[in-house]
User: Fold these one by one.
Assistant:
Number 1:
Amino acid sequence: MSNVRVAAFSLSLDGFGAGPNQNIDNPLGIRGTELHQWFFPTKAFSSMHGGPEGESTSIDNGFAERSFENVGAWILGRNMFGPIRGPWNDDSWKGWWGDSPPYHVPVFVLTHHARATLTMDGGTTFYFVTDGIESALTKAREAAGGKDVRIGGGVSTIRQYLSAGHIDEMHLAFSPVLLGEGESLFHGINASELGFTVSSVVSGERATHVTLAR
Amino acid sequence: MSNVRVAAFSLSLDGFGAGPNQNIDNPLGIRGTELHQWFFPTKAFSSMHGGPEGESTSIDNGFAERSFENVGAWILGRNMFGPIRGPWNDDSWKGWWGDSPPYHVPVFVLTHHARATLTMDGGTTFYFVTDGIESALTKAREAAGGKDVRIGGGVSTIRQYLSAGHIDEMHLAFSPVLLGEGESLFHGINASELGFTVSSVVSGERATHVTLAR
């Protein structure tokens, strides 16, 4: 079955999915990287980004690996693709991930500014979608060919798809940190009214993994 | 050492400490009792409220029991004491807990409306404090005689003491539910800036126990 899902999305215990003041030096906002301390030591991470091979048998790694399984297309907000705001000045920015991004499938980037499709090494193609979240989802579903569409983030993008009722399943990784400020995932969104209930809560090595479904 | 602490305080995974629309039928707000499903099966609960003896060896019970240890005085918001709003019409309301409330120490109830001190069975005395949270804390510290002051709740009371910088330690029990709406503990409060960090995260049988300290 093809689901629209959020997976391996990190939150602080006070509910923030990114810190404040995102910029090129702090792509996840100030202290935002603290949210992902559970992910960095996993084999899933090292497989994507190189470096010494990470933990392959941890609970955290299991969740990280499953987050990539059966994903046929991604949708990303523009700020997750890069730090540039406003019109694209040129095509030099090709994402945070180098020549061979860890997606390996079509990735639809939400933006208000048109840009030519970008074909990267390893099967990743970035499509820039300027006509809204519904259009991006339609395109992503088509591209996914029956597999899942993963809404990669950031917080604002997930909130838009949540509010529109498009997300079927969410795996959230609560990291043992308090950010105090930043981008709240749920504030002002009634996840219960949207039909979500808690499917499972699993204590990992460095995060508490919560799965929500409806 | 005498600490001001919050303990065994239940939250939903989306950060609510009570549901909306508190009233006499829903003292914890709509669906608020779902937050406390971890507590009801414990021996700590049955010791307080009677009924068949609860679990004595569970992780959840350990946290519940420790929440009562070394507590010399409590502070409660008025809505936690009862459903009556505005002036006390008479003295017939004596709390939700019957003749012998499970506190057994002085309890300071924050209210805007004066009322005579209420001496209950089993060592609980309710004092009604009309001159603010600082005054209540001073009185509670004195009454506690070197033991801890426990801020029992509800959410609004904890938020006031948090914002004023008076809370030293918090044990929060995250229940596996989404409330969607209600009273958010942290919204608009920067727990990190207040100096809190996460001391521990422990997976219990029916809740995830998070301890914050500063």
Note: The domain at 4-83+99-213 of chain A is CATH 3.40.430.10 (Dihydrofolate Reductase, subunit A).
Number 2:
Amino acid sequence: MSKAIFYHAGCPVCVAAEQNVAAALDPQRYNVEVVHLGEAKTRVAEAEQAGVKSVPALVLDGQPYHINFGAGIDALK
Amino acid sequence: MSKAIFYHAGCPVCVAAEQNVAAALDPQRYNVEVVHLGEAKTRVAEAEQAGVKSVPALVLDGQPYHINFGAGIDALK
């Protein structure tokens, strides 16, 4: 089982990406964790270390994939 | 079965997104078509109509999701 983390900030762009891209991942292969960085500010550093520069972003096997653009990560600190 | 189209241009950013994000979609629910816009220039207009502004991009159920940034679509015309 691979780990997928979907970082977002509750914005409309984030919600659309969560409901479509994150929800489209294969549940047989991916364990998807959804993290709202506006509510879990302690995890902003973790997202940055994974290379996340904006939300929404999906980190798959440690690699960051930014999906469209909702907000820069600096706005969430 | 939903339709997913992954548009790319063969760039390293595109290949990474294809091998990770596009390949992570649930094959039980999504039929994924991979389109290389550099080789299939006739499909650039179709991608633009779906709202694709850069590659790599994934169009899920008609909605465009740009994944990181490889190249702007204008560079593929």
Note: Chain A touches chain B at residues 2, 4, 16-17, 20-21, 24-30, 58, 60-61, 63-69 (CB under 8 Å).
